[in-house]
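User: quick one, fold this
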Amino acid sequence: MSDKIKALDAQVRSLEEELKTLKTLIKHIEKRKKGVKTFTSLKGIWKDKVHFTIDEIKDAEIKLKGF
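Assistant:
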């Protein structure tokens, strides 16, 4: 094979490896997104809240523990 063909073959193999890596990265990102909870996914007394005071958190813990 000539030098040009060898160079093109090496580029193709490099691009194939890069594509494989990117596909793997996409799979990992999709898996992480499924398990992530956000403030909008909260339920009960925390629903639709962004800021929580320490007193609210303590009161919620007391209610959950039944004290």
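User: anything notable?
Assistant: The chain has a mean pLDDT of 79.
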